[in-house]
Amino acid sequence: MLLKSSYQKSLGLILGFILLILLMCGSLVFGYTDTNLKTVYDAFAHFNGSNEHIIVYDVRLPRALIGAVVGASLALAGAIMQALTKNPLASPSVFGINAGAGFFIVVAVSVFYVNSYQAYIWIAFAGAAFSAFIVYFIGSFGREGLTPMKLTLAGAAMAALFSSLTQGLLVVNEAALDQVLFWLAGSIQGRKLEGLYMVLPYVLPAIILSMILSQKINVLTMGEDVAKGLGQRTGVVKLTGALLVIVLGGGAVAVAGPIAFIGIVIPHFARFLVGNDYRWILPFSTFLGGSLLVFADILARYIVMPEEVPVGVMTAFIGTPFFIYIARRGFGK
Questions:
Q1: What is the CATH number of the domain that holds 14?
Q2: Which residues cross the membrane (predicted)?
Q3: Terminus of the chain with fewer CB atoms < 10 Å: N or C?
């Protein structure tokens, strides 16, 4: 634990918020079109319809806001999943929640020709919930019951299954392929604020409720018997946590597609900073998750300029070595 006192943790949380704001400002400035802080200021204070102002206002602003919200949602979902399952690899991507939500959206697009943001949100929630239920059900089989290793294997299997089904659907429907291919890679490029406005009424209350639930999560991590002995209704806490994960993960997929590894990397980094107290882990994960995704999106603009790499590719590049490290340490290898 790097930050020991409440004062240090509070200061660290403020610095995390400032880092997120600075990166969002950087997202407004940096890119293929040359702009600076004065251009950004003028785009908001004295919009004149120039190409630079349009890019700042209509292209980069949505990317900065969506990146912050999606990154925060994925990191928060991962932190809650790791607490509830006691699994260091738990995240929406590893447990197949992202893949399930993505598969449901691809079915809606390719089979039912759905093209509404509002519909995407509810379809993503349904896919995330279905995937979570299946993974929990499969992971509970056997004499030992639910274990971290079985959950991980079940999640990996369902993620592979949904990904394969998604690819199969796209092979037979080229029109749908053109519509969702870039989205499936995980990207916030070209996203409109309309999608964010539609998902915020679900995601924002989920973020707030997660913070309220943090103390109960602390008690639950002490062990189910201890939590019950302290009067906690553990079933209600677990169900609430699962619903929050579905809303946060499904909402993120609906807006930006399936983006991996943020839900794994950030909760561990937050735990390194503040220890095992989820009253601190969850807010730190929120700011750091948003910061990581916005930072990865800025990098994605420069890798193959003037083209752009989907931000999901960048987060995978950043997160894969960390995933291997956590997998080896978490399962005692």
A1: 1.10.3470.10
A2: 12-32, 64-81, 93-113, 119-139, 151-175, 195-213, 242-266, 278-300, 309-327
A3: C
Which residues lie closer than 8 Å to 154 by C-beta, 6 or more apart? Answer: 95, 96, 134, 135, 138, 139
**DSSP-assigned letter for residue 282:** H
Question: What phi, psi does 204 have (nearest 5°)?
Answer: -60, -50
Instruction: Count how many domains the chain has.
Output: 1
Expressed as residue numbers, the domain containing 170 is: 6-330
- The yes-or-no verdict on residue 62 having pLDDT over 60 is yes
Q: Determine the residue type at 70.
A: V
Q: In degrees rounded to 5, what are phi and psi of residue 112?
A: -105, 0
Q: Is residue 163 part of a domain?
A: yes
Give per-residue pLDDT as tens, 158-202.
999 999 999 888 888 776 677 677 778 788 988 889 989 999 999
pTM of the model: 0.94
Q: What is the pLDDT of residue 129?
A: 95
Q: How far is CA 9 from the centre of its chain?
A: 23
Q: Which of 288, 305, 5, 249 is nearest to 129 (CA)?
A: 249
At 253, give phi and psi (nearest 5°). Answer: -65, -40
**Burial group, residue 317, by CB count within 10 angstroms (0-12, 13-18, 19+):** middle
